[in-house]
Specification:
transmembrane helix; about 0% strand; single chain; about 90 residues; mainly alpha; 2 helices; membrane
């Protein structure tokens, strides 16, 4: 199993940062939706709700990947097996 090159402080900072950006992304997208369409999410047709959820998820994923890059770029090169998943080494 790979050892991560960062400590507890950086992990806690990354988690807090991710939590804040997760909430901010949701608030931003809902506010933008109300501002552009003039209605709440609950009163929209199902296809528009589905599109809103997809776009909100894409925005959140982009922000999360950006934060991962921001916090791990100082520790490059990363260990080769850091993000690998091997089912043979799974522990139950």
């Amino acid at each position: 199993m790979a050892q991560v090159p960062w400590g507890l402080g950086e992990t806690a900072l990354g988690l807090v940062s991710w939590s804040l950006t997760f909430a901010a992304t949701g608030l931003f997208s809902v506010t933008l939706l109300r501002w552009t369409l003039g209605s709440s999410v609950g009163s929209l047709p199902m296809d528009v709700k589905a599109l809103f959820i997809l776009l909100n998820q894409m925005l959140g994923t982009g922000v999360t990947l950006g934060l991962l890059w921001l916090f791990t770029r100082r520790h490059t090169p990363l260990p080769a097996d850091l993000f690998s998943i091997d089912p043979r080494r799974a522990r139950c």
